[in-house]
Amino acid sequence: MSASWKMHPVTQLFLARFREFIRQPEAVFWSYVFPLVMMIALGLAFRSEPMEAISIVVQDGRGSEALKATLSGSRKLIVSSGTQSECRQQLRAGQSELIVVAKNAGKSDTVAAETPDEVTFVFDPTRPGSVYARDAVNDVLQQAAGRKDPMPTSDLAVTEPGSRYIDFLVPGLIGMGLMGGGVWGVGFAIVDMRIRQVLKRFLGTPMKKSHFVAAMMFSRMVFMIPEIIIVLLVSRFVFGVVNHGSYLTVILLIAMGAFEFAGIGLLIASRAKTLEAVSGLMNLAMVPMWIGSGIFFSAKRFPEFAQPLIELLPLTPLIAALRHVMQEGAGVLQILPELSLITLWGAVTFVVAIRVFRWE
Amino acid sequence: MTYAIECRQLTKTWPGNPPVEAVRGIDLQVEQGTCFGVLGPNGAGKTTTIEICEGLLQATSGDAFVLGKNWATQADEIRQEIGISLQETRLSEKLTVLETLTLFRSFYKSGMEPAEAIAKVSLQEKADARIKALSGGQRQRVAVATALIGNPKLLFLDEPTTGLDPQSRRDLWRIITEFRESGGTVLLTTHYMDEAERLCDRVAIFDRGKILAIDSPQQLIADLGAEHVVVFAVSGDGAKSLADDFGARLPGVISARLESEHRCLSVREPHIAIPALLSLINERGLRLTSLTTRQATLEDVFVHYAGHGLTDNAAGGVR
After folding, report:
1. Residue A259 Cα, gap to closest chain B Cα (Å)
2. How far is it, in rounded angstroms, from Cα A277 to Cα A261?
3. pTM of the prediction?
4. Which residue from A minimizes the CA distance to B86?
5. Bridge partners, B20 (sequence order)
6. CB < 8 Å to A200, chain B
7. How many CB atoms within 10 Å of residue A178?
8. What pLDDT score was predicted for residue B256?
């Protein structure tokens, strides 16, 4: 019994792929280290810290000194001053979020220290920082001028794991890793075998085409496991990312995602004759998903008319389902629609790839 | 008895502008238990023909039967019974010889143990070496071992010794001879005439997609009617302006041709032809600068039929 198991073509093809993979240390290194570097870099860049003080600039002129003194009293603000053109330059360059211009009509224009009667805010309403700065500066000025808030308020700060950017990012990166690993890993391996005429040589044997394709997809699923485990461990112990759902559900999603993208990689590589051609096709297929499927920011940010297209992308349901599970603790039943879509993508690409596959 | 291979009016045209007719009506039969050689220059249609027989290409028209079976309906059965070595396959460099053969063995219902195939090509010492570490000749032996692993009745070898050193060529010749002696049929392509003369029971001479002649190497040479070749060169006034077929009408000479720096006479009776040649050269006031004789070979057969040399690039077309 063990001899026939040893001889099964899918097992043998899988073993051959597995050996080729682990005997290329540099390929192993990059496929496992790259997603990690990406996560650590982005995790650090977008780490959740209390909002820093905002830089604003006061335009030189009548009343500007008094204005600057008032605003410098606030710990939320970093205040500088400059001429009109310097101010505009700082705003354009993003060094300041807001220009504050004092108006002091009809009084001596040599006295910069006297209190202004009116203030104009110059800012870009499309920049969230600018809008925030405008309100913060306005508050400081109004209170200094004697405003009393009729409604007493108090603040209670909470930062919960699950709602930070890194918690949002990790499922996105897992999805991206599954996509890149499947498309690159399978695509390049297939085209390389085609160039070396190995596929043609296989065609000359009784090997079943479905066995070959199944072994390619299965090996990709296996190679993904260590990558995902590393990403999950580092995100857990370095960034404190907690999985609110069941690990079994996450594993199921990862396995199906690996299957889906192995199928897509296979389809992309099914006819390409050169590495250049397949690289182009792979980028063509992946760029829309890098941008649209919600790896780094929510796909809901795209306009309404684009949503049906985004939902069709193979990566969108995978990342959405991973977030449902990891951030919201969804179970298998709640992600069933996404899971079916993922499975459908994998099955359809598998069947089409076998049909159109070029063996020589 | 069914033929190991039978081709009827086989053609293959590659679409394009203009279309390329790689194979233009091939008829051939290969008897079981024989070694059949397909000879010809690059672009003669050898590889296209063999790949149609291997089931890797579809013929544009005509039929190819392998072991009495039809590719259209019995492809799986045929593949169980044939072994293939392509002109150029780069097997995975990361796998060992044993791993490669174990993989190929898994594709066949029956066959030999991987270790046995390795022994057949005398690579026991390299069984655990990666393909990357092997020489060109050793890699070619692994390729032949992958063809032998399913215990095939019919072995296809496309230019098995091209680019190999003399020792490696002899190693492969031994493997092929042993396979044939154990009852197997071999179809091989080559552009080495010595290889064909040594290994093949019958050869087909291909040129520009057609078969020019089919027979045993000995018979093809005998059919020339001239089993000797006189090779000579002359110098002196007027040597350059001599006709290409200078000497063709001398007694005992069948044909004459110019081969770059030498002139060749295909000769039935050298003892008559050579004195006549010497006196003709004297009459013209030329000087003989070299004179040798040799046995006619398949190369001469090829030149006789094709009207150009094997190494000439006059054949045109594609593989």
Report:
1. 23
2. 19
3. 0.79
4. A201
5. B14
6. 56, 86, 89
7. 31
8. 86
Burial of B34 (0-12, 13-18, 19+ CB in 10 A): middle
Q: Give SS3 for A303.
A: coil
Give the separation between CA B139 and CA B133, rounded to whole angstroms: 9
β-bridge mates for residue B39, sequence order? B190, B205
Interchain contact B14–A (C-beta under 8 A)? no
Distance CA A118, CA A149 (A): 21
Site of tokens 């051609």:
A277
Instruction: Supply B116's token pair.
Output: 């046995």
Judge whether B88 is closer than 8 Å to chain A, CB to CB. Answer: yes
Cα(A326)–Cα(A250) distance, rounded to whole angstroms? 8
The position carrying tokens 């370095």 is A238
Query: How do residues B189-246 score in pLDDT, each as one tens digit?
Result: 988 888 898 899 999 999 889 998 999 998 988 888 778 889 999 888 878 788 888 8
Check residue A137 and give left, alpha or beta (phi > 0: left; psi -120 to 50: alpha). alpha
Q: Are strands A54-59 and B262-267 parallel, antiparallel or unpaired?
A: unpaired
Residues B214 and B279: beta-carbon distance below 8 Å: no
Distance from CA of B88 to the nearest CA of A (A): 7
Instruction: Find the CB nearest B107 among A196, A198, A206.
Output: A206
Mean pLDDT, consecutive 10-residue segments, chain A of 360 residues?
Answer: 63 92 82 80 73 82 84 84 89 88 65 73 87 88 84 77 79 90 89 91 92 90 85 86 89 92 93 90 91 86 87 92 91 92 93 88
3-state secondary structure of B79: helix
CA–CA min distance B14, chain A (Å): 15
**Cβ-based neighbours of A38, under 8 Å, separated by 6 or more:** A173, A176
Q: Is B145 on the interface with A (CB under 8 A)?
A: no
Confirm or reject contact between A12 and chain B (CB < 8 A): yes
Find, among A324, A323, A315, the residue nearest to A342 by Cα.
A315
pLDDT band at B312 (very low <50, low <70, confident <90, very high): low
CA distance A263 to chain B (A): 23
Q: Tokens 């996560």 sit at which residue?
A: A39
Sign of CA dihedral A160, A166, A172, A178: negative
Q: Tokens 């008829």 identify what position? A: B27
Q: How many CB atoms lie within 10 A of CB A7?
A: 16
Q: How confident is the model at residue B247 (pLDDT cuts 50, 70, 90)?
A: confident
